[in-house]
Write a structure and sequence with these properties.
Elements (H helix, E strand, L loop, with lengths): L1 E9 L8 H13 L4 E3 L6 E4 L4 E5 L10 E5 L6 H22 L6 E4 L11 E8 L3 H48 L7 H31 L1 H14 L2 H6 L1 H6 L1 H4 L3 E2 L5 E2 L2 H4 L3 E4 L8 E4 L1 H8 L7 H5 L4 E9 L5 H19 L12 H9 L7 E3 L5 E3 H17 L6 H17 L18 H10 L7 H10 L8 H9 L7 H9 L6 H12 L7 E2 L3 E6 L2 E6 L1
Parallel strand pairs: 10-11
Antiparallel strand pairs: 1-5, 1-6, 1-7, 2-3, 3-4, 4-5, 7-12, 8-9, 11-12, 13-14, 15-16, 16-17
Helix pairs in contact: 1-2, 2-12, 2-19, 3-4, 3-5, 12-15, 14-15
């Protein structure tokens, strides 16, 4: 399991600096503290010695105007490790910005919405079983039928990239002739280098946008066929048995949101979901189960290799859940990830076949995410009605019954159950003002904490002030409202400071990230041309190339 968090920079004084310059300044600052290595396929991704990655997220359009910094935890085997590495990475990035930027001129925001109005959040990655038995056979057959179209796409993609490369080379040549040739005087070599450097960033950005546009056009038929296959075959039991759990999960992990009309929501990201399964990188799609990792294996380069496509035939695939807010409370993060992974395990053990069924899951998830008083009910099948608390209690009770029948349950599972039950018990108390807010959850659940802050205001307080609290709650600095609140209530930390210090430098044990992190620590400082990906790395020693699969 893993977690990806998107960050943006709010700069109220000066115009926004060049995004690329800002990103590489961040990378340089991280490199001074932790060994890192570049990605083999993405020029805007770097892997750290603790197994994590930092990247510039530009989306499918390649437009840098809406680019965000994205930090991803290493692959972890426990929910607590996910939270630990999330905190360690955030502290590392915050430290770099604090050293390189005056605090009065920037704010690093753990975003749920950027300055362009795009809805963000966290992507949770889990290994899930695609299908069983005949369903798995149909999955393999569908992949085999799509394969010829993939081959055609890759041939056309290589031709398109070649055309873009040729155009860029021609532009550089024309630029050199027109701007440099008339100035061939002593010292002109430095001027030539300067001029070439001035044109390179422009060409780099433009070529990235042109390449992205052409590739999206070329692989559109492949994407649509693959989407049909996924909707027909993939994760059918997960979609059926987890729909009610995921629709109501926001009451455990929502970060709170003040909309443009001044209304308060439990979760912005959950409220934006508009389909059960699909690809989040296309248009206005906001799926609950996001299959973009599989799509990248199908269509991403290197175009002459089919090793990534072979991964799609494995029974288990990496799937993202894209309905989680970027929360600040480590207690809530641990609860969300832990409860979700335990539910996935129950589905794959076929222990949730009697789970509640919702008549319209997508409508239900939006309805619950906007109901901060927890009073509305959503429609189930056979004329049933459920509240969010009822749904969560059903799943909690089913999980407890299952674990009590086993003798090999890890202690962390019982810790998660304790957090889950405490949250539901506290949320069962009806609240409408600051005096009735469940005090025990302040600093533990984000949407409760933010709601408590907002209820301190006079009801007539203007929207800009309420929105300021909404945004600055997520500020990653000592001036952020969440941190001020945590200092006020003096909660015990979920992870210790010495663990965080270790996690900044070292990968989690007994996980694929351990080999990746150790390799980066050993070879990143040498002349080995180390290039790293999530699943493999390449390097060169004494003229001989090596490839390591994690």
């Amino acid at each position: 399991m893993g977690l990806e968090t998107e960050l943006f920079i709010r700069q109220p004084i000066d115009p926004k600096p060049e995004t690329l310059t800002q990103f590489f300044s961040l990378i340089q600052g991280i490199h001074q503290r932790v060994p890192l290595a570049p990605s083999r396929t993405n020029p805007f991704r770097f892997f750290l010695a603790n197994g994590s990655s930092v990247s510039l997220e530009v989306g499918g359009s390649g437009d840098l105007k809406s680019a965000l910094f994205e930090i991803a935890t290493p692959e972890c085997k426990s929910p607590r490790d996910v939270v630990l590495y999330e905190i360690a990475n955030e502290q590392l990035v915050e430290e770099v910005f604090s050293d390189d930027h005056p605090s009065s001129r920037w704010s690093l925001i753990k975003a749920n919405m950027d300055s362009q109005g795009h809805t963000l959040g966290q992507h949770e990655s889990y290994d899930m079983r695609i299908a069983r038995g005949s369903g798995l056979l149909l999955w393999w057959l569908g992949l085999a039928l799509i394969l010829p179209l993939v081959v055609l796409y890759r041939l056309l993609a290589m031709a398109w990239i070649g055309i873009i490369y040729s155009i860029c080379s021609w532009v550089r040549g024309v630029h050199r002739i027109c701007r440099v040739a008339p100035r061939r005087v002593p010292g002109s070599e430095e001027e030539t280098d300067s001029l070439e450097r001035s044109i390179d960033p422009f060409l780099h950005v433009r070529s990235m946008q042109w390449t992205a546009w052409g590739l999206r056009f070329l692989h559109w038929p492949v994407v649509q066929l693959f989407l049909v296959l996924i909707r027909l075959i993939a994760l059918r039991s997960h979609r059926r048995d987890l729909a009610a759990f995921l629709a109501s999960r926001s009451i455990l992990d929502g970060a709170g949101h003040v909309d443009e009309q001044g209304r308060y929501w439990i979760s912005q990201r959950s409220a934006m979901a508009n389909q059960m399964i699909g690809f989040g990188s296309y248009g206005a799609a906001r799926p609950i189960f996001r299959c973009d990792p599989m799509l990248r294996d199908l269509i991403a380069g290197p175009f002459w290799s089919f090793s990534r496509i072979r991964r799609l035939f494995a029974p288990k695939q990496r799937i993202e859940l894209a309905i989680g807010d970027s929360g600040m409370c480590a207690w809530s993060q641990h609860l969300r990830i832990g409860a979700t992974v335990l539910m996935i395990d129950l589905v794959e053990q076929r222990e949730l076949r009697a789970a509640p069924r919702l008549a319209r899951p997508i409508e239900a998830i939006g309805q619950i995410a906007r109901d901060w008083m927890l009073v509305s009910s959503v429609a189930g099948v056979r004329n049933r009605e459920y509240t969010a608390l009822e749904l969560q209690r059903w799943y909690l009770n089913r999980l407890k019954k299952h674990l009590e029948s086993r003798s090999d349950v890890p202690s962390e599972a019982w810790d998660i159950i304790d957090k889950w039950q405490t949250s539901l018990n506290q949320l069962s108390v009806k609240f409408s003002d600051q005096d009735s807010i469940p005090k025990m959850l302040i600093g533990r659940l984000d949407w409760i904490s933010k709601l408590w802050l907002l209820l301190q205001l006079d009801p007539s307080t203007a929207w800009p002030i309420r929105k300021k609290i909404d945004i600055r709650y997520h500020e990653m600095s000592d001036q952020g409202y969440h941190r001020k609140l945590v200092d006020l209530v003096e909660l015990a930390p979920v992870v210790r400071s010495d663990e965080i210090s270790t996690a900044r430098r070292s990968p989690p044990l007994n996980a694929p990230a351990q080999r990746r992190g150790n390799l980066i620590r050993e070879f990143s400082a040498g002349d080995c041309d180390l290039q790293v990906e999530w699943r493999q790395a390449t390097y060169c020693v004494d003229g001989k190339s090596y490839r390591i699969v994690f």
